[in-house]
Amino acid sequence: MDVDAIHKALSHPVRRQILDWLKTPAAYFSMQDHLPLEVGVCAGLIDARTGLSQSTVSVHLATLQRAGLVTSKRIGQWVFFKRDDATIARFKRHIDTDL
């Protein structure tokens, strides 16, 4: 677990918002109809929800992925993202014990 990468990823409000949305994807991305949300959320839906450009959201998602906070899965032409709750739990334990 790269604690510094996680801190960097969490330093931006858009990335924290994306993580929050991915915590309960059915509440925010119920319009996804081509695959179940358990697979992840289509990057295009995340783009649309943020209101930011695709390239900007792509950078945010890449930062979250490098930090290990999200995983991605390519299916056909689409990329789906979901939270890595195991890494998030390890980071929370790290914060609780080191501070």
UniProtKB/TrEMBL annotation:
HTH arsR-type domain sequence ranges: 1-99
Record PANTHER family: TRANSCRIPTIONAL REGULATOR, ARSR FAMILY, TRANSCRIPTIONAL REPRESSOR SDPR
Pfam families linked: HTH_5
Keywords for the protein's UniProt record, in alphabetical order: DNA-binding, Transcription, Transcription regulation
InterPro entries in the record: ArsR-like_HTH, HTH_ArsR_DNA-bd_dom, HTH_MetalResp_TranReg, WH-like_DNA-bd_sf, WH_DNA-bd_sf
Protein name: Helix-turn-helix transcriptional regulator
Domain of life where this protein originates: Bacteria
